[in-house]
Amino acid sequence: MTFKDLKLSDKVLAAIDAAGYTTPTPIQAQAIPFALEGRDVVGIAQTGTGKTASFVLPLLNMLEQGRARARMPRSLILEPTRELAAQVAEAFETLGSQHKLTVALLIGGVSFDDQEKKLERGADILIATPGRLLDHFGRGKLLMNAVDYLVIDEADRMLDMGFIPDIERICKLLPPSRQTLFFSATMPPEIQKLTDQFLKNPEQVRVSAPATAAKNITQKLKFSPADSKTKRHVLRELMRSEVSTIQNAIIFCNRKRDVAVLHKSLVKHGFNAGALHGDLDQRQRTATLEAFRKGEITYLAASDVAARGLDIPEVSHVFNFDVPISPEDYVHRIGRTGRAGRDGYAAMIVTPKEMKGVRAIENLCKAKIEWIDGEPSTENLAATDFSERRERSRRGERGGAGRGRSKEAAVATTEPRETAEVRPIRQRAEPAGEVRSAPAAATAERPARNRRNGDGSSVSRYHRELLPPATSAPVVGLGDHVPAFLMRPVRVAS
Ligand code: AMP
């Protein structure tokens, strides 16, 4: 099949030619004819399949007739993130090179004034994130009743980000006669409900089974016996082992703060790395992405903000520093590599407590992922899990990272060198009240209720008093300590 067979206009075909596309991708071949017929479409496709052009091309075609009036956009494209919105605007720039259509981009982190001016001039195509769109609508700068075409892109991402109520509100503001093109990589029940409610008898097109990873991606797992520092060491080893083939790589972490810590650590170890996560302002994010695109940065430590939709061609490697919380995110993350039929490589670091997540991914993808150096044995997992728990209890940490100071934050301050000496543990080995090392002695004088230990974690006075003295003799029962409630006199009935 050729683009000509899709009955696109001459102008659109000329732009496709100029962009260098020769053959429509499967999602384009399936979705474009329905869109041109005026049908609502549900497209189940992940990024990297050419889905952006599958709505940009028919929109350009359909918008050729007519023109926009002030504050009354003719089409609306909703994107979950600013980056995706900016990327779609770029696609319109490339593929709309033969048209004189006006594009307005409404995203957060950019001045309202400039955006209002664009709306005032009239926009044929309005690309927006839901929050900023509703802000403009609330200010009375925007009328939605001339929107003939609505595109909802990355709907499952919108769901993850809590945008569904906003989407519902926006859909209710639009004329019911509009045409809707709806795209999602997966179809969880909430998304299905949304399409049932707001689309009219849609045609469903699907380019691959939901949440399956592309076959041209080599996937590997690498065991790490412990979190944080050990994981960073394992990551560096992985990166070095692939150095001859790495062109550029994205390294995904589950949490924003881990991205920041990892970025710092990579730079310190001489890797040419940048960071991308939701806490950075728009200017920083755009600059980092641009540098990564141009090859000025080779490694990009990123949170899932970067996982979906960002069009960064030719990412040769993806490293998962953490097993993602949702198995669908794994598919999205590794979808950054092996795009447009190229070979890709994705390796994931797994700690004992992340094994469950690996099984969820394998179940979802219906495939086993191969381990580098073989699968860890049950004994191996149990041993590392036990030693990790023992280590944590020696450090006075209780399970989970949610309480008190996070483990990562502690690492950030106690890890000037990756070969870190065991200073924090050594300090802990002394009875808390009798610490004589300089920093800890200073803390001991503080009257505060919660005192900091040498490793940065804190132990309340109450808990410190309950800590056993550091002797090597095993403690039997409650040891010498008798809790106060056991010493209370008991009234005995005569
Ligand atoms: P997307 O899935 O929309 O993010 O597109 C992934 C990449 O494929 C982008 O770099 C597009 O420019 C490119 N692309 C889209 N359609 C085609 C096509 N028909 N032929 C070649 N490349 C394409």
From TrEMBL:
Gene3D superfamilies: P-loop containing nucleotide triphosphate hydrolases. Its EC number is 3.6.4.13. Keywords: ATP-binding, Cytoplasm, Helicase, Hydrolase, Nucleotide-binding. The keyword ATP-binding applies. Residues 386-408, 415-433 have a biased composition (Basic and acidic residues). SUPFAM superfamilies: P-loop containing nucleoside triphosphate hydrolases. One of its GO terms (molecular function) is nucleic acid binding. Residues 32-205 form the Helicase ATP-binding domain. PROSITE patterns: DEAD_ATP_HELICASE, HELICASE_ATP_BIND_1, HELICASE_CTER, Q_MOTIF. SMART domains: DEXDc, HELICc. Residues 238-382 form the Helicase C-terminal domain. InterPro entries: DEAD/DEAH_box_helicase_dom (IPR011545), DEAD/DEAH_RhlB (IPR044742), DEAD_box_RNA_helicase (IPR050079), Helicase_ATP-bd (IPR014001), Helicase_C-like (IPR001650), P-loop_NTPase (IPR027417), RNA-helicase_DEAD-box_CS (IPR000629), RNA_helicase_DEAD_Q_motif (IPR014014). Residues 1-29 form the DEAD-box RNA helicase Q domain. GO terms for cellular component: cytosol. It catalyses: ATP + H2O = ADP + phosphate + H(+). It is an enzyme of class 3 (hydrolase). Residues 436-445 have a biased composition (Low complexity). A motif (Q motif) lies at residues 1-29. Residues 380-461 are annotated as: Disordered. The keyword Transferase does not apply. This is DEAD-box ATP-dependent RNA helicase RhpA.
